[in-house]
Amino acid sequence: MDGNGRWAKNKGAARIFGHRNAIQAVKDVTEGCGELGVKYLTLYAFSTENWGRPKEEVDGLMELLVNTLKKEINTLHENQVQLHTLGDVSHLPEACQNNLAEAIDATKNNSGLILQLALNYSGRWEIVEAARKIATEAKMGMIQPEEIDEHYFSQHLKTANIPDPELLIRTSGELRVSNFLLWQIAYTEIFITPTLWPDFRKEDLYEAICVYQKRERRFGKVLNPTA
To answer: Are residues 145 and 202 in the same domain?
Structure first.
């Protein structure tokens, strides 16, 4: 969800102003995905690298997260959205952890869209964590190295029970994946838009999905060898 800082700068405001105004984009995309029957939506909210940002901005982001969860929990529940997190949330402020736990518990039985917030997350961290678990299992004799395959490795990722993403939307014209779901996006279609995240709305989501629907997903194969 890129472009919050640039959006704020364009308006002569502090970066946190952009983050606050990005909430409507989150609501629009979540609602739009729910209406379209999308089953999984993952929002990259805070990376492990984001701790390197100015303390004022990080503190503001954490406060915004707490306040938004408190304000929107009933809306999530009413729309049958089930909230999950992806990342090491143990390093978040205690208030954030508590509000996340409450929201996750309150929505755990909902049957609609599964919304994953990637918080204190990085793809490399996730892969290292999986490798560490598998190494421990091998050391304990639970598995032999030659038995380890892609499926076994995938089952040790934080997304073990969730299918790989079909579409990755990158806002603000960024042309990199930024350490996001590095294992899972091996064959994900990528849609890049110049729209800054605070301006992203349902119409932008629909455009991305329409473009995705026109693509031929071959997964490295030739679908029609005689063509």
So the answer is: no
